[in-house]
Here is the input.
Amino acid sequence: MNNLHLEGVIHHRDALQLTAELSDNSVDLIVADGPYGVTPHEWDKISDIQEFNLELIKRFTRVLVPGGALYLFGKPNCIDFIDYRPYLNLKSKIVWYQPSRLAQGRLSYTNNYDVICYFTKEKPRVFNLDDIRVAQLVELEHRKRCENVPSVTNGKFGKTVFNPKGKNPGDVWGDIKQLTYKSKELVSREMLNTIQKPKKLIERLVLASSSEGDLVFDPFCGSGTVPVVCLELNRRFIGCEIKNEYVEMARKRLECGDSSHGFSEAQETEDQLSLV
Ligand SMILES: C[S@@+](CC[C@H](N)C(=O)[O-])C[C@H]1O[C@@H](n2cnc3c(N)ncnc32)[C@H](O)[C@@H]1O
Here is the structure.
């Protein structure tokens, strides 16, 4: 039994129910941008987000292929005090830094990042570093000097050389901005509230942790960013979303391509004015 009958579709279903129907060891990558447990949306009202995430981790482990990857989105505490270790290896806790987030806190430091927990089932099957390298920000002269300092040439980092294709993006990502009302790729204003993710962010995850032809599962599709990116990058996908209006929006986005929506120039100007 495989998942062929479920592929290529955004299902109007509950994520846990659909996950239960997926075959064991059948999905290469899961991108789970689900509840954060912090907004007033009905779907985000989770009494214990850590326990909820542990349940997701358990169920996703069964369907991942050995070496498959899970990216789990959340707030900085989203996996605190839960023991995921019997199920998956936590390889990185990526900080998605958003310096432009409104900083209105008075009593503590305003949170201006989300985390994306990168897990693998056993040893990662793929990590396509060359597909996600980012530009080196240091001057060529400085790079050359660094490559030649004695501690680099003689020390344990003797093999360190600057790669002309760029560097590993690291685990603090400040180079990808959250969408705003002015973003062309925003599907609707409502999707900004449910945190439609930028394609660039999802592309980095899909490129790094899957290969062409692999199967990607998005249990919480929202506006359909993951399926859209999968189509563009030649990955197979299974999508799932609980709210009917979002399912329709995402299906339309898939059918019509990404250039069919976005706000008109007039709307964008209006937004710009209201923001100054
Ligand atoms: C943060 S949004 C996902 C945004 C999406 N990545 C995008 O770029 O548009 C989370 C989505 O999960 C959906 N959702 C929440 N609980 C769900 C569940 N149990 N099953 C399926 N979908 C669910 C919500 O309706 C919401 O659209």
The longest strand covers residues 64-74.
